[in-house]
Structure formats: structure tokens, C-alpha cells
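Q: How would the C-alpha cells look for this protein?
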Amino acid sequence: MTEDDLNSPPPGRTRGPDRTLREHEVRTALLELLAEVGTVTATEAAARLGYSSGLCSFHLRQLARHGHIEEAPHHGGRARPWRMKQHTSTAGAGEPEPFGDLARGLEDESWQRWLAQRDEAPAAWRHDEAFSAVSYLTPEEMSRVAEAIRRALAPYQDREQRPLARPEDARPVALIARLFPLLPHATDEEGTGGAGRG
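A: Here is the predicted structure in C-alpha cell form.
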């Protein structure tokens, strides 16, 4: 019997919606963890996420099979660290392609799941604080706003690694901020001759 046999889900079970959702949740959690910490083994993922190491091992291999992650370089031993798949940027900067598209997809999926299931959440959690705004900022001001958001979150960051620091009623909350300049549409530029509006 191979390691894959030991760690694979039991045969003979139909793939019902509950199992499919569970698999999706495990893989999403693993991808989010890898995006956060860089590399992780199945044992480390299990300790952080609360799943069994066998389940994490199985889904890490599935993610690798589908091209999302890859084995990270390591120096022997039985531990098998994984990392996000490394891509070469085609933008000409020579930097690794950011987690961007995959992260946004996970954020959007999590948001849609919240919208669909929030009526099932405990009463105190049936609301959110989603908002958006457009502000006219200089590049320096945009950076200052982003830094202010990071500072506001800083007191809560250690709760990820220190479960005992979490208040009893604390739950994981998605905090997503995207500050980016709104570029004009081509028709806007044509109508103004490329000049800025006063």
C-alpha cells in the first residue's frame, strides 16, 4: 500500500455536494495558507488548519496535479514542503507573477459563499462591513492610506499564530483592500484630447 493509498479519500463513496464542498474548502484553505506563509508541509498545514495531515497531504498533491502549487526545494528528509507555483512574469519586469488572479478568485468565491449562506450564521454575524469609495489622491496619499489600514490591523495580526490570544467569540474575517488608480476609458481620453479634467 502506497502513501497515496493511505491518504486518499476512502473508495466507494459517491461525490455528493457535501463532499465536493468540503474538498473545495480544504483546498481553498491550503492555497490561502501557502499565499500567507510561502511554503508548508502537510503536517504544518494540518496543525494550522485543524485538518488531518493525511487529508492535507492528499489535497496538496491534487493542487500540484492541477498546476496550482509545486514542491519547494528541500534538503532530504521525509518532510515534503509545498509552495505556490512559480511563474515568470511576461510583463517585462522579470519578477515572479503575483498571487493576484488566484487570490482574487478565492476572495470572490468566499464573498459569494458568504452572500449565499449568511442567513445560516449566528445572529451576531449576519452582517458585514463591505463598502467602497472613490477618492482623489496623490500617489503619496494613496500609500499613506494603505499604511494607515495596515497599522489599524496590526494589533490583530498575531492572533493567526496565537489562538489563545483570540477572544472567545472571534472568527476569521476577510479583510480585503484594493487601492488602485482608476484609468480613463479610451473614449474619455479622446473626448478631452488626453488632457486632465479640472
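Strands lie at 39-40, 69-71, 82-84.

The helical segments are 3-7, 17-37, 42-49, 53-65, 100-117, 139-153, 186-192.

Upvote if useful.
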